[in-house]
Design goal:
Chain lengths: 333, 333
Amino acid sequence: MAGGRKELVNISEESLLENIVKKFISPILPGEYLEYPDDVKDLILGGPKIIVNIDGTSINSVKLPWRNYSDVGWTIIVGAISDHVVKGSFPRDVFVSIGLSKKDAHEILEELYLGINDAIKHYNLRLLGGDLNSSNDPWVSVAVIGYTSAKKPPRRDTAKPGDRIIVTNIYGAMGYVVYNKLIQNPPEWVIKATRRPLVYLETAAIIASNYRSIHASIDVSDGLGYALYEISKRSGYGIELYEKPIYYQELEEHCSSDRCLWEYILNGGEEYGAVICVDKGQADEIIDFFKKFDIPHKEIGVVLDTYPRVTIKDVGKIKLMRWDQFGGWIEIK
Amino acid sequence: MAGGRKELVNISEESLLENIVKKFISPILPGEYLEYPDDVKDLILGGPKIIVNIDGTSINSVKLPWRNYSDVGWTIIVGAISDHVVKGSFPRDVFVSIGLSKKDAHEILEELYLGINDAIKHYNLRLLGGDLNSSNDPWVSVAVIGYTSAKKPPRRDTAKPGDRIIVTNIYGAMGYVVYNKLIQNPPEWVIKATRRPLVYLETAAIIASNYRSIHASIDVSDGLGYALYEISKRSGYGIELYEKPIYYQELEEHCSSDRCLWEYILNGGEEYGAVICVDKGQADEIIDFFKKFDIPHKEIGVVLDTYPRVTIKDVGKIKLMRWDQFGGWIEIK
């Protein structure tokens, strides 16, 4: 065997992580040389400009009673790539850092990775690295590298008066959960809508190829109300909503007023839709793109030349809540 | 004030994270458009090839009694960039995800960020984003983007028989800590050597410009013995050590044998040196570079054409330990 590679005679017990990651790690591309278990990865670029984020999550905060750990893994990846899509970036390369307790690491890790892997495959991503840490309060942190052709990806603080606001995806299911906090067995439509949230990758193409007319954007991770409030506050202008985004019709059984519907719609979370503020002259063109790509969407409002605030036509101001890591459900003022 | 940006009349209490991150976040470069608090960051590339890693840490696992939280922040950044340097990558862009408990987040977060910021400034990095999560067992996860001119960054599994092994940095201090596990007040030299570990960025330049002759590399994060063992196991060849790396001379007061010195040297951690396996014909040239850059280094051994194992000339095999997140200090076999 001189000159050839040799097996260890007494191979040590491979680490838990390595055994599991090996199954799910993506193959390297021609022109790439590093791979797991090396601590870093070299990347062939997937576009002219790279976009990066890191997104940490306490596992317990996303572990709804009807989500198993593979649903949790899925949801965490979707949450991390949603940040990209809304900035016109195609997410591609994913790195995952995980903290689990010694007690349940064996049980949870593989299930988590199964859901992570489902999302990696579904969204045509690559899982390129990760590590495992000991933690009595389990967590996942995901770094995603995406690529865009947009010279100027839209910020959240640059909406302009007159911009028309387009919102993608469907609302109200997580709002239902929020308003029925301790619910263990919600109706089937709520489970279906929230177990594994979806993000529409093609939104990235629409935003990247129209970045000049899209003045501002943000994704909906902590509720649509909070997303709109962020755009308003950061941009320094008011927002008036004149139409509801697409919402689950089942909500109408629970609401006898418009105000009630709006509360469910605005105070949810993890819908991973896009809120985009489009130059008023180009909004119709952008809406056409959403139609062509079959992405559920609706024009819901306008940016005003007033002090920052979010109001609803014929309804006024409603109480906006958001989930705060430290404060729990807190009112946005 | 028509047309201008307006302040919120009733500004909500800004989040803890935002107040602190604002102080430390790096300014964007010309040609970059996104910045905190947007969820992603666009990057102007700092080199022809990008290198990425994610590195999670349980805060308690690096909180030596003589480290405050700013030392912990420093150490975590140094640990994350060390992975880059040893692959010929200049780390530049840093994203930090943090988990802290509600109880002590206020107290710890700013101190952590002070140390993170010290490392960012010292190593000419950029802090570009981060998030804060609730966790009863505090953690930090860091993603780093680096850049390299090396077409093929060295892997850890491609050492070749005959390669000479060069090791940078100084050993023995963390070994001293490991062998005196419950020590609260170690001697001053140990504190000085371990409180804020150092990494030598110029190592990246040496590796990037000599990647053809550097067959394999790994950084020393879990002990020099483990690093050598990884190279040996993954490459499929044995390693013989014939000289000690640079070590703290104070160790000689504690050791009456070579075997004892080797134990302290090999069973440490967080030294963040580089272990590189160099084609035997080019090793002198590489050593010259380390001299010119004033990086502490030593040629310590050779890759053999035998089964994987790490042995020491005139000493034989010694017990190698490494820190395992779940198993604690475990023997490497």
